[in-house]
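Ticket #4471: structure export looks truncated?
Reporter: QA, pipeline team
Priority: medium

Steps to reproduce: submit the single chain below to the structure queue and open the exported record.
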Amino acid sequence: MSESEPMFRVIHGTPTAEELAALVGAVLARTRPTTPAPPAVSRWARSARPGGGAGWGWNRLTS
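Actual output as written to the record:
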């Protein structure tokens, strides 16, 4: 596809400005790169953090 060719072509009917704007918005939202969610921290990794275990950290002893 070259730069002069349109990405979309209306085959039947005449779309309104609102309809074209909705189409452009949907295409842009769909093609936008998303950032992946941060990986979940396992219970094992949390247990190594201060106060992150199953209630046996130093915070439990001082409260």
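Status: closed, not a bug. The export was complete when the record was re-opened. Leaving a note from the reviewer for reference: The mean pLDDT is 77.
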